[in-house]
TrEMBL record:
Family: Belongs to the CoaE family.
Lineage start: Eukaryota, Metazoa, Chordata, Craniata, Vertebrata
Protein name per Swiss-Prot or TrEMBL: Dephospho-CoA kinase domain-containing protein
Keyword Amino-acid biosynthesis: no
MF annotations from Gene Ontology: ATP binding; dephospho-CoA kinase activity
Record InterPro entries: Depp_CoAkinase, P-loop_NTPase
CC terms in the record's Gene Ontology section: cytoplasm
GO biological process: coenzyme A biosynthetic process
Organism, as annotated: Tachuris rubrigastra
Keywords annotated in UniProt: ATP-binding, Membrane, Nucleotide-binding, Transmembrane, Transmembrane helix
Lineage top rank: taxon: Eukaryota
Transmembrane stretches, start-end: 205-226
Length: 231
């Protein structure tokens, strides 16, 4: 059984959710890192308790859940707090992602798409991806979309966008680009082409690790994957 990983990323308001919707419609296995990040900090989780210990109860909502906006404001302005939060949540996110990858592996999927918003910012991850797909949108269209979607003025939208690595820069790292600057139909056609390429691909990322012995290989795979991601 062969399997490889595909990393999918974009920028804020670049239209990644449109691309994911088409991929899911085509029957692809998509793992949503953002959704997992929300799940691992639910009340009673290990990460929730650690976050409370370090950030205090003022970042809680009435229902005991973490106020993502309040926490976001803290880590946006304080890099050392951001590093602390990452050190609490990343190992938990990774464990859950691995569990889901292994589930799809066992179900016989040929590849799994990992939807990771900060894929290119976390450079350590890209080496595990056979393909890295960037959902691109030209800057004026990106700004207009963000203003419309979040009801922001131009300056606020610009600040959000400039807090990320520019999409132009990410272009050089991606193996595949979906240009979402045009209409929905054009984006859809590009996703269908990508899907055909993935279906045809026989490249097997873990070949040198697993050497055909799936079960024996998985232990080493998990270890390497964890070591790279957590370091």
């Amino acid at each position: 059984s062969r399997m490889f990983l595909v990393g999918l990323s974009g920028g804020i308001a670049s239209g990644k959710s449109t691309v994911v919707a088409v991929l899911r419609e085509l029957g692809c296995a998509v793992i949503d890192a953002d959704l997992i990040a929300r799940q691992v900090v639910q009340p009673h989780s290990k990460a929730h308790q650690q976050i409370l210990r370090y950030f205090g109860t003022e970042i809680l909502l009435e229902n005991g859940e973490i106020n993502r906006e309040a926490l976001g404001d803290i880590i946006f302005s304080q890099p050392e707090k951001r590093r602390l939060l990452n050190s609490i949540t990343h190992p938990e996110i990774l464990k859950e992602m691995l569990k889901q990858i292994l589930k799809y592996f066992v179900l016989g999927y040929r590849y799994v798409i990992l939807d990771i918003p900060l894929l290119f910012e976390t450079r350590g991850l890209t080496k595990f991806m056979r393909y890295t797909v960037l959902v691109y949108c030209d800057p004026p269209a990106q700004r207009a979309r963000l203003m419309r979607r979040n009801g922001l003025d131009e300056a606020a939208a610009e600040a959000r966008i400039s807090s990320q690595i520019p999409l132009e820069e990410k272009l050089q790292w991606a193996t595949d680009v979906i240009d979402n600057s045009g209409d929905r139909e054009s984006t859809r056609r590009q996703v269908l082409r990508l899907h055909a390429r993935l279906e045809d691909s026989l490249d097997f990322l873990w070949a040198r690790l697993a050497a055909g012995a799936a079960v024996a290989g998985l232990g080493g795979l998990v270890f390497l994957f964890l070591r790279h991601l957590i370091s």
